[in-house]
């Protein structure tokens, strides 16, 4: 680990100023991923700007019925928050499906979104990785890639995004609020992460120095039936082989609203818009669900050893849709 | 400095009592010092540099940038490191030449004032290589495979009874199984702290046996063993990977010699997979032939595995078939191929764990073919004598374990048809498998002293690797002395104590306990001569079991067990979760019910990992293991292990040692994977023959 500076910011403005003043700076949240990557030599920041103690640690209900989650809210606290559990069960379930109790106690909302892929080639500086070092090549494409992407990957990168939380946020139509010296903006959570294309070193659309200040859960999906399901190698403390978050409203036997996002299939949470479009207005039946999910997954391009992810994703999505629909009917 | 402890207030003295761990309080309060936790004055820290090619030669090392980092004391390479005498185990011959036998082999060591400086400097060392082609892929018909004379444990590689199999059999199975590489990954990574002081070497090492470490260092550093003290007071697990010295201790001693400072080498978790051993993958072909009555007429178990170019280690996976079942035609063989892989080594129940997975899975397949209950199939094939040697068993209560397990598990109502039980999308099944592990014992010395204050000091260089060895040895002593446990002070974990063998092969308690028992029995006699009260100078008695503990026995001596599992297979995801695991063991006299249970349950949990979650993937392109941390090498989490029961039957065996005990540290893993695999077949009707049973494989098998 190379020596680095440390700055603790007291305000959002102070944080972005500190970042701008220090070339090679990185924001530090819970440090559950960044510090590991520093030890591995993957991240080599000159300065850490600690944003974990900014006054962004509250979950507050806004006048329009939406819920604003501060970027420094810990994953454990967010998962346990009564309003989150009540109105956005998929988010609470996704958070609790992630990592371990100890990690969730440390990890923050903002940091969770910005965690890096767990691709083993990315994590080993002695191996080629276009994400870590553009132009170096990809060790995973012809290598060990059982856990890698089946959707939206590129010649340069087949990594997946590891977050469970982000998958639920994408399905729930959450927005990510950002701040930098040019001001504040907000983007849909489903568009916050990007596909690798020929710039795999960029995980998200965030600008250099821009800070996540909060995540807003909209009133529109509050209280809608939702659920998260994750398939994994062991029952706890394992990244998803595939996961799905579903928000479903059924009225008179027909789908009135569908939000579906897959995890562990792509470089970002994969919002299944094709499936959603196929479902809305149609019957809420297992056959319709299977058809719609099939349309979405038709775009999959599995690699040599990860073809199982396609039926796995299909199965969990149809299962969750069917469960939510039958719960609505009863 | 070695682990000295006083028994807690509990007054259990009888062997078998569930005495609490003597050092338990010390451990949970952080007072127990492990090998890296000895901050000697002036201590430096070292960080190794692993090779980044799979095969080749170091052509140049540029340490200039590394040496410029503040606090760096030295960069040792094969060009400047002190010379070593060549050891038998060439995995220890580090920094002596330019060759790179596998990826991850250490090519340099940075010594610095702090761990952070050492790590940063290690990253700054530039190494150039001449790279050769490599091959790390084991195949069943690899052209370089050969048949070794002997396999691990010095067993013959091949045994053949009854000539070629031409026997008529009503039913045959001919099946292949695969167990992928596995890693021990003890909680405490391998670490050593070394200090030279005027020719006297003190080493704190995380090892399963300090005497072996001392003797190996004496030979490599060409000094007398009397000048070396090895302390292994507390060890955070080993599972075989600390059974022999590892590069950490050699590097620490080298670095201490080169810098004149005490040095700690604490291997990072990510470096362990390449340098501290692993269970080699095994490819199995098992052929069984049986009559309609289930009696085996032929048994063939053929194993193919790999070893490294550094040393030959052949996982003896076909050996357990020689113990388990007899057949007029009985054939067991091993083939091995040298690949450019990290050196495999001992991992909990080497041989038995993968071998019994294959054999006991094949027995389940045979039972299904016969339409016979798998418990009954094993019962009808229970031999009177050890099939391979023809010796009588000192005790064999496998069938009792199976019957008792079946009773406790509720086996009798089982519908044998596969796929008959479902809960929504879950398919449920139950499975059974047998287990065996040999009774191993080595000579040991021990010393017992009666002190005027009424306490007894018992000294033996046993190693407590987390098993509770201190406690059980104190119980053995108390029992032999006929005194309460709290009067016994046990000292273990230092080579200044009477020499003793390693904690391995489930032999520790038998070996050490025998010597402790004898020393204490002798002391009791001497004390009686003094009218029961020791004189002011105390009374001491010593024992050495050489010639007895290692005497050839007229008996085949093994522990046996039966494993039962209930598994739920999710047809949506292919996820397999174990609902219940139950083991019943016949392992001689159980000396401490609490720590024994912990050993059995721990072994079963490790077997669950072998069955479902643990695997190390060799990367064909880069030549290393992909899973290099505990986030990706999936040891079972608590959520994977909901209900594990371990029981034992009262077994009295007069032919093993004075305590009547057999080893218990390994047998728990042995049959577990097969029992779970058989339960998965019962649940689904599909035979999965490659471990671990991860969702990708299971979903594919279900037609997912």
From TrEMBL, chain A:
It comes from the Bacteria. PROSITE patterns: FAD_PCMH. GO terms for molecular function: FAD binding; oxidoreductase activity. Transmembrane segments: none annotated. InterPro entries: CO_DH_flav_C (IPR005107), CO_DH_flav_C_dom_sf (IPR036683), Diverse_Substr_Oxidored (IPR051312), FAD-bd_PCMH (IPR016166), FAD-bd_PCMH-like_sf (IPR036318), FAD-bd_PCMH_sub1 (IPR016167), FAD-bd_PCMH_sub2 (IPR016169), Mopterin_DH_FAD-bd (IPR002346). Residues 1-222 form the FAD-binding PCMH-type domain. Gene3D superfamilies: 3.30.465.10, CO dehydrogenase flavoprotein, C-terminal domain, Uridine Diphospho-n-acetylenolpyruvylglucosamine Reductase, domain 2. Keywords: Oxidoreductase. This is Xanthine dehydrogenase family protein subunit M. It comes from Streptomyces typhae.
UniProtKB/TrEMBL annotation, chain B:
Coiled coil: none annotated. The keyword Oxidoreductase applies. GO terms for molecular function: iron ion binding; oxidoreductase activity. It comes from the Bacteria. It holds the Pfam family MoCoBD_2. InterPro entries: Ald_Oxase/Xan_DH_a/b, Ald_Oxase/Xan_DH_a/b_sf, Ald_Oxase/xanthine_DH-like, AldOxase/xan_DH_MoCoBD1, AldOxase/xan_DH_MoCoBD2, AldOxase/xan_DH_Mopterin-bd_sf. Keywords: Molybdenum, Oxidoreductase. Residues 29-133 form the Aldehyde oxidase/xanthine dehydrogenase a/b hammerhead domain. This is Molybdopterin-dependent oxidoreductase. It comes from Streptomyces typhae.
